[in-house]
Every structure is written in C-alpha cells, then in structure tokens.
Amino acid sequence: MFLQQLKANWITPANFQPYGQVIYASKDGEAYNSEDAQLILDRGIPRFYIMRLGERGRKFHKITRHLNCTQCLGALEGKEWLMAVAAPAAHDKPVLEEIVAFRIPGNCFIKLHLGTWHAGPYFDHEFVDFYNLELSDTNINDHDTCNLLETYRVELEMV
User: Which domain holds residue 7?
Assistant: First the structure.
C-alpha cells in the first residue's frame, strides 16, 4: 500500500465547477437563477436530513458516486470541512490522478453534479452535523463505490 497526499485547496465556484456548485447565501426574495443549486431529485423521494459524523481524520481509500441524483452537503455551526472529488465519467472507477481535495468553509454548501466521485466529508473536529439532500434510497440503491486500495493500491490523505 502507498499513502499519497492530496493538497486541499480552498473551494471557489470556479475551481469546483467540474464537480458541482458552491452555494452561498442570497437575499430573501431573489429570483431563481443559475447560482441556485441545480438539482436532480426527480428519480425518487427526496430526503433532507441532518447527519452527525464523528471525527474521521483525513485519510480515505473509498470514493463513491451517485448516478440517480445530485447531492447537497453543508456543515452546520460554521465548521470547516474537507471533501475529495473526481469529475463524473463513464468509467467504473475514477482516474486516480484526477482526484482533488477542497477545504470548504462553514458559510456555504456544495451541490455535487450527477455522477461526481466523492470522499467525505472529513474534518478535524470531534463531530460535525451536516445537512444532506439526496434521495431516500441513495445509500441503498445509488451508491457506486470504488475501493482505491484494491484498484490502485493507494490510500489518500488530505493535507
């Protein structure tokens, strides 16, 4: 096994565009526009919930994608967090060299494009509560995972 480090860069709408959207607060009453989350949730029952994750460190060897819905994630309480992603592709696995990592501040949320490979959320806090918007059966019927240890003999660490 080989441990490879990924530098986590601060997320911006421009550098995250191949993987999804970064959504910031907008004024109340503002009309729907392209800066709003462009959602695909019509293939099942949407599920919006708060998930509590305990300390997970920064290392991972599994990366997942959802082909039936977009997914939105954001941290409550303004806590910073990390996410590794690779662009959607027709392949059954992500290209290892194309996996990138982002630092995400607690004042925004992300919407992943359909099929975006993702690992996370990860963070250094004892726990973080995240709101999560996906389908009610995403974790059962729409959870395509690639084990990077088996596929590439590598574990990744976000730094």
Answer: 2-21+42-158
pTM of the entire predicted model? 0.95
Give domain status of residue 10, yes or no: yes
pLDDT of the chain along its 159 residues, tens only?
899 999 999 999 999 999 999 999 999 999 999 999 999 999 999 999 999 999 889 999 999 999 999 999 999 999 999 999 999 988 889 999 999 999 999 999 999 999 999 999 999 999 999 999 999 999 999 999 999 999 999 999 999
CATH number at residue 61: 2.60.120.480
Q: What Å distances lie between residue 51 and 69, 94, 157, CA to CA?
A: 18, 26, 23
What does the block give as tokens for 114? 């359909």
Question: In this structure, which amino acid lies at residue 49?
Answer: Y
Q: What single letter denotes the amino acid at residue 108?
A: C
Q: Are 137 and 48 in contact (CB under 8 A)?
A: no
